[in-house]
Design a protein that fits this description.
By secondary structure, the chain is mainly beta. Helix content is about 10%, strand content about 55%. The protein is elongated, with a radius of gyration of 40 Å. It starts with a helix and ends with a strand.
Length: about 500
């Protein structure tokens, strides 16, 4: 009896321990079983990092003369192995996010892009207020009696058309004081940024990033200084770069593309207030030129800095003593051949003045010239340079002819009269015209009279030989003596249907 009692007493603590321990063990096991799937399936938290323009090793800009550019930059970026959220700061505010390309220079497999975001919700007083709708802020108001600011707790109720606040038991707007915010919301940033979710295989990598950005363009301008006899001229070409992209690029490799590149037009981003700066670079030509696909590529032979909201001018070419030809041109009108106009059609009509030159090596040029504006100057008798006219030119390949209209001649005028007109069926006519050209200059001038008949035409009679310009135009080129006149007469038969 004693032995059985003693045995029972000995087993009692063990039973009590088991009764207490087993549920605890079962609960722990259940927790492990429940937690195990979550731990196995949950992705590790990414490391949050940022890259600024200070990380740049190299930047190259290709600017197109259609108000956009291609940005390519290489940065040395400190990363971490595994998932990384990388904020890439310093991109253009006019970036086209869909054109972004990123790759690691460490080779294939070193980096994988899982996600890309373009954050452009920029910090501003209005945006800050909007983000705090429904949240508490501090409002401060100056007390003239105490000579101190008084702080009050307030809730921002609305920013639609003004700021509506709840201060204590009152709702008010137009509160005369400043507002203090406890922090900047995470989704507001000072500058537009790209944010990538990356899978990185190394702790430090060189990343190459490229993208297209709008509001970055260039144009060509030319200055032509005439010789005293107008037979030669010194031509200087300038490139004007205009960077309104919202980002600055220091010591960039600069290339320019001239040509008409096909692009799909989308809505342009909102306009910005721009401050324009100008910087004239050294006067020596600094661009090398090459054919590129069906366009022409101009490469600046040194690095250049493109600041945001800046215009920069760089010399494109210099060509001294190129050969020129000055022409006087008088143009008619197509409607004059289709009706009767008794009396004078024109009286004291001024004659246009044009310059022509060959874009050839033999003429000191021979470089494909981007489209732009040609401004022409000439020195007066005192040696002062005077402006005499300007005109735009299109993209001009080498060995093509360039024509620049300067204006209307002061001393060469013309009168035009229709002497006869006869209808020839439903859509034809015979017309006789008389054109008197008067030259008040001290030298003889040759005037090209261009007549746009605009249909099937045939010269029946003429006082001067004519030249067929094309299917719709013919021309006479009489020489008009100094302080004299010359009259061109001709009869033409025209059919326009």
């Amino acid at each position: 009896m004693q032995t059985r009692a003693h045995s029972s007493l000995a087993r009692a603590p063990i039973a009590a321990f088991l009764l207490l321990a087993v549920p605890l063990l079962l609960a722990a096991l259940l927790l492990l079983l429940l937690a195990a799937p979550r731990a196995a399936g949950a992705a590790p938290e990414p490391t949050h990092l940022r890259s600024t323009p200070a990380d740049r090793r190299e930047v190259a800009i290709t600017v197109y003369n259609q108000d956009f550019g291609l940005v390519r930059e290489t940065r040395s970026v400190g990363l971490a192995r595994g998932p990384v959220e990388l904020g890439f700061e310093g991109v253009a505010s006019t970036i086209q996010p869909e054109t972004v390309a990123i790759r690691s220079l460490a080779g294939e497999g070193a980096l994988r892009v899982l996600e890309q975001n373009y954050r452009y919700d920029l910090l501003s007083p209005q945006k800050l207020l909007e983000k705090y709708v429904g949240r508490n802020v501090k409002v401060y108001r100056w007390n003239d009696v105490t000579g101190h600011e008084e702080a009050h707790d307030a809730e921002v109720l609305s920013t639609n058309g003004g700021t509506v606040l709840r201060i204590g038991d009152e709702i008010t707007f137009g509160y005369p004081g400043r507002i203090g915010f406890p922090e900047i919301p995470e989704n507001l940033i000072a500058r537009p940024s790209l944010v990538w979710l990356l899978d990185s295989g190394a702790e430090k990598q060189d990343l190459e990033v490229s993208y297209l950005a709008n509001s970055m363009g260039w144009s060509a301008d030319y200055v032509l200084v005439l010789s005293p006899d107008d037979a030669q001229g010194d031509l200087t070409g300038w490139v004007t770069l205009d960077n309104r992209s919202g980002a600055s690029y220091e010591n960039a490799k600069l290339k320019l593309v001239a040509g008409d590149v096909q692009r799909i037009r989308k809505a342009m981003p909102a306009a910005y207030d721009m401050r324009v700066l100008r910087a004239a670079e050294a006067s020596a030509p600094q661009f090398s030129e090459e054919s590129f696909f069906e366009y022409h590529l101009y490469t600046l032979e040194r690095p250049a800095t493109l600041l945001d909201n800046e215009k920069k001018q760089i010399t494109l070419l210099q060509a001294p003593e190129i050969g020129l030809e000055k022409h006087f041109v008088l143009r008619g009108e197509p409607q004059w051949f289709r009706g009767s106009y008794p009396g004078a059609l024109e009286s004291k009509r001024k004659v246009s003045v044009l310059l022509e030159l060959d874009n050839s090596e033999a003429n000191g040029l021979g470089m494909p010239l981007p489209k732009g504006t040609v401004r022409v100057y000439k020195e007066d008798s005192d040696g002062g340079r005077q402006f005499v006219g300007e005109d735009s030119i299109d993209h001009t390949p080498r060995d093509e002819r360039i024509r620049v209209k300067l204006g209307e001649a002061f001393d060469v005028v013309a009168d035009r009269r229709q002497m006869e007109w006869r209808e020839q069926g439903r859509c034809g006519s015979e017309s006789t015209f008389e054109i008197e050209i008067r030259n008040h200059k001290d030298t003889d001038v040759a005037v090209e009279v261009v007549e746009p008949a605009s249909g099937e035409w045939e010269i029946l009679r003429s006082s001067h030989p004519h030249v067929r310009k094309d299917a719709n135009r013919f021309a006479f080129t009489p020489t008009v003596p100094a302080h004299g006149s010359t009259t061109v007469t001709y009869t033409v038969r025209v059919k326009w249907c």
